[in-house]
Amino acid sequence: MTTPTEPPPPPDRSAAARRGRKLGPIGATVGSAHRAWLEPMRGAYLASGLTLSELSSRVSFAKSKISELLRGVGLYPRWEIVLLLAVELDMPSWPLYRLWRQAAFEAHKSSEWVERCTQGTTVTTTDDTPSPLDHQAFRELVEGDYLLYAQVFLDDDQRDTAVSDTFDILWLSWNDALASHDTRRFAWNVLRATVMTRTPHLDGRPELSRAAFDTVALQSLTNPADCINQLTESLELFTAMSRLPTHQLDVMVLRRLCGFSPERVSALLGASLASVRSNERHATRFLESVTCPPPSEGNTP
Predict the structure, then answer these.
(1) Is residue 17 part of a domain?
(2) Helices (H), strands (E): how many in the chain?
């Protein structure tokens, strides 16, 4: 699959001056699925130049309730009010709805509650509006590679959901992606954050034990004893890989587990070829020092 070599050009837009009371931070208890749609909505509000009072008058909803919604505090919001805000903030409703729905289930809302919230708004909860053409083109270029990366950490269903959510988040934040220093890097950060929120962690490090069972070396063996030895070796390697810094881990996953060339990794991450090679070199040295330590002087013949 071809990956983009140049990001789309950023739009020419100036930051809107803020008036009125400053919006408070997102609540500490907001879950990852809720944050996935809340952060783009907050970004759209901040970019709009509207005050909470102005937004309140437009949607006929209390300013205090809008503030709570935009901070993720209080009760999980019903779809009707989220949709009203989305219309005023010129946000696409379809990807927003899908993310809102997932977050509702994360907040332990029932299917009946979700259905009641969407009654009368079915026209806005169907995939009848295409994403921007440059967003569609970007997705076609990188989706296969994103799936391969996610497969290292997640099972098939979680992998597909994580990548789908990534492109929904990017759709909601597409103007920010285009205005960023590098659209590819912006998108990769969204993918990584989305995958990592679903990846089991041990002592703050992502678990790669799934990948150990899916290595080419292991699949090529038929002798049970050889399989056990190879599995032990793979588990040791992937445990060490989980200790790598973020950028080094991503490069090693893409290079060693996905089999991508340095040039392909560079294009996918939006990073220079020199930085990719440097990260791989430092990661390799660390892994060799952990999995193949030099013999101690006392054991030297």
Answers:
(1) no
(2) 16, 2
Q: What stretches of the chain show up as alpha helix (H) in DSSP?
A: 32-48, 52-59, 63-71, 79-88, 93-106, 111-118, 133-153, 156-172, 174-179, 183-198, 209-212, 216-219, 224-241, 246-252, 262-269, 273-291
Which residue in this structure is represented by tokens 């009371």?
21
Q: How many independent structural domains does the chain possess?
A: 3
Say if CB 34 and CB 108 are below 8 A apart. no
Q: Please check whether residues 245 and 278 belong to one and the same domain.
A: yes
On the CB side of 134, CA atoms within 13 Å amount to 15
- Compute the distance between CA of residue 169 and CA of residue 187 in angstroms, rounded to an integer: 9
The secondary structure of residue 110, as a DSSP letter, is -
The two three-digit tokens of residue 124, written as one number: 């806005």
* Domain ranges, residue 89: 32-124
Transcribe 267-282 into DSSP letters. Answer: HHHT--HHHHHHHHHH
Q: Amino acid identity, residue 298?
A: G
Per-residue pLDDT at 235: 65
Residue 220 scores a pLDDT above 50: no
CA pair distance 166, 170, nearest whole angstrom? 6
Which two tokens mark 95? 């990807």
pTM score: 0.81
Residues near 103 by beta carbon (within 8 Å), at least 6 away in sequence: 31, 33, 34, 36, 37, 76
Per-residue pLDDT for 64 more than 60?
yes
Verify that 73 and 97 share a domain, yes or no: yes
